[in-house]
Amino acid sequence: MEYLNAFLCGGILCAIGQILIDKTQLTPARILTGYVVAGVLLSALGLYQPLADWGGAGATVPLTGFGHALAKGVKKAVGEQGWLGVFTGGLTATAGGIAAAVVFGVVMAALFRPNAKR
Fold first, then answer.
1. Is residue 118 part of a domain?
2. Distance between CA 45 and CA 61 in Å, rounded?
3. 117 within domain boundaries
4. First to last CA, the chain
5. C-alpha 97: how far from its chain's center?
6. Number of domains into which the chain is organized
7. Rounded CA gap, 19 and 7, in Å?
8. DSSP 3-state assignment of 75?
9. Which of 10, 24, 25, 53 is buried most, with the most CB atoms less than 10 Å from its CB?
10. Domain range for residue 33?
11. What is the pLDDT along the chain (118 residues), one digit of tens a residue?
């Protein structure tokens, strides 16, 4: 059942993104940024954690999950360090994912030598 929930949750998030691409003039970059902001806002309102509990990886892997991780990191750091945590908490909570994205991006670029499209 966990796999079905993850598939449904991730699929719904992707379908919403596809609808936004097809039906609006928003660029993909703005939609992706909106997903991160939506994850932060839903987390701040206490609505994202129940979704993450139900949807599992379907909720935590997309960009909304990245926003949720940022918000959780800031909340934890503010509780531990005070207002300084506003600046450090999000980076601390997401450093592993950001580092992995950079490393894998460099490895793929080195292996496949991307060229500019003409």
1. no
2. 20
3. no
4. 46
5. 10
6. 1
7. 18
8. helix
9. 10
10. 2-112
11. 899 999 999 999 999 999 999 999 999 999 999 999 999 999 999 999 999 999 998 998 888 988 999 899 999 999 998 888 888 888 888 898 889 989 999 999 889 877 777 6
